Amino acid sequence: MASDVITLRTAISADIPPLRRILTGSYTRLLKSSYPPSTQVTAVPIISQVNPALVTSGTYYVAVDQEDRVLGGGGWTRSIKGGGIADVRHMVTDYRYLRRGIARRVMMGIVSEARHTGISRLECLSTRMAVPFYEAMGFSIDANVTIGLRPGIDFAAVRMVKDL
Q: Do the Cβ atoms of 102 and 72 come closer than 8 Å?
C-alpha cells in the first residue's frame, strides 16, 4: 500500500468497478477454506455481485488510501423488520490488504452512522470465515442459516447480531 493512511468516505457510483474487482477477487480466494468447491462454482459468483443501489444508497462506505484507491467497503440498510434494526451489507476487504484495519475502519463507520440515526441493533449474514472478525467487533452468533440464492443454489451463512 502506498500509504498506511486509510480514510472512510461514502461510496459513489465510480466505486462500483473497483468494488466488483475486490468482491470477486477476495470472495474467490478467501472463501476456499470455508466452503466446498461446489459453492465456489455456484454461489460465489452470485454473492460477489455489486448491488449498485446499495453502493449509491448513502449508507455504503469505502475505505481508501491517500490515492483514493478503494481497499474495502461495507454498508448498512434499515431492516424490513423495523424496530431500530439495520442490516450490515456486503463487507469486503481486498485480499491483498488483509489485517491492516480496513474492515475494522469500515465497521466502525457503520456502527457510528447507524447509531447516529437511531439504529439500536445491527444484524448481518456472515460468511463462515468472517465470524471471528464480527465477534471481534462485538457481534454474537444468533444462528446458522442457509440462504437460497437461486433455485438449487444455497449458501451457508451465520446470522450475527450486535446491540448498539
A: yes
The DSSP annotation for 124-154 comes to EEE-GGGHHHHHHTT-EEEEEEEEEEETTEE
Nearest CA-CA partner of 128 in 50, 32, 47, 37: 32
- C-alpha 151/C-alpha 149 separation (Å) is 7
**What digits encode the pLDDT tens for the residues 42-98?**
999 999 999 999 999 999 999 999 999 999 999 999 999 999 999 999 999 999 999
pTM: 0.93
The widest CA-to-CA distance across the chain, in whole angstroms, is 44
Instruction: Report d(CA 1, CA 77) in Å as an integer.
Output: 30
For residue 135 the three cell numbers come to 465477534
Residues 6 or more apart in contact with residue 90 via CB below 8 angstroms: 23, 50, 51, 54, 60, 73, 74, 75
